[in-house]
Design a protein that fits this description.
Length: 294
């Protein structure tokens, strides 16, 4: 559990931790970008300049102006309002998909590391089968079978994440099981469940958090790709990928239809990638001991 408190303890260590935190440029920039997306998504529940699904044909293809800051689309819908609602869609898909992969991956990886032997081998070979398929291809296959929609998109992306978190959990757990304090806990008769909960999981959370942050960015890209192909979020609901799909026909006359949702996707992916890199620098004890300063 040292990583949980490392750098934030009282005294000199706490001061050093705060110094590293404020020097971590990736963490600050990435966190700021992600925070802005979260604030935008939250605000969209209470306010958008216009109804994001309301059509107004007389105002179709308006360029960015005082009335419509990001312009309007082919149906006269306000692009800013749809980008705001699209942020909600992307965050929900990311949270649910990463949650599915993280929850199932921690369970399977912890059991594989604990059991060992043929059970470990069986779990990991099964995981390798799923890991052998590309993410978007797997998602397309699952959504094609189950049908298009945001729920099936989240399930498809989440299933692909299970092998990633399973392998990471197993690899980090195996090294923890060999530590002296785990051996001591087993020697005094502590149950395996308590050891996993109190000794194993707290010490593997650092790489899992970093991995989850990076996979969040990939989930946003995957959802956008599925929506672009018509397998994700269905109209009239706003989705950045769906907005790109609808914009491709009108690129010559209204390029802003694709520019702004494309920038939103790039903003979100950059933010979560920088945040993940910053968290890795902050939480990885090896980097701290080596004297690396973010």
């Amino acid at each position: 559990m040292g990583w949980l408190t490392h750098g934030f303890a009282p005294g000199a260590q706490g001061a050093e931790g705060l110094t590293r935190l404020f020097r971590n440029v990736n963490l600050i920039i990435g966190g700021s970008l992600v925070l802005l997306i979260v604030i935008t998504a939250f605000c969209s529940f209470f306010y958008t300049p216009y109804d994001p699904n309301r059509m107004n044909l007389p105002e179709r293809f308006h360029p960015p102006n005082a009335s419509h800051i990001l312009g309007t689309d082919q149906y006269g819908r306000d692009i800013l309002s749809r980008v705001m609602k699209g942020a909600v869609n992307s965050l929900v898909v990311g949270w649910v998909a990463v949650g599915i992969g993280l929850g199932c991956g921690i369970l399977l990886g912890s059991l594989a590391a604990y059991w060992g032997g043929w059970k470990d081998e069986g779990i990991m070979r099964l995981v390798d089968v799923f890991y052998g398929f590309p993410a978007v291809l797997s998602a397309i296959l699952i959504t094609s079978v189950l049908g298009p929609g945001i729920a099936n998109s989240m399930l498809a992306i989440g299933i692909f994440y299970i092998p990633i978190f399973t392998r990471l959990t197993r690899g980090t757990s195996l090294s923890i099981w060999q530590r002296d304090y785990v051996t001591s806990a087993r020697a005094i008769g502590q149950s395996s469940g308590k050891i996993i909960w109190h000794a194993i999981l707290p010490n593997i959370l650092s790489p899992l958090i970093v991995q989850a942050t990076v996979q969040f960015a990939i989930a946003i890209l995957a959802e956008a790709a599925l929506s672009y192909l018509g397998l994700g979020t269905q109209p009239p609901h706003a989705s950045w990928g769906r907005m790109l799909n609808e914009a491709q026909t009108f690129m010559e006359i209204s390029p802003w239809l694709a520019i702004f949702p494309g920038l939103a996707i790039a903003w979100a992916v950059l933010g979560f990638n920088l945040l993940g890199d910053g968290l890795r620098d902050l939480l990885d004890p090896k980097l701290v001991r080596a004297g690396r300063r973010p």
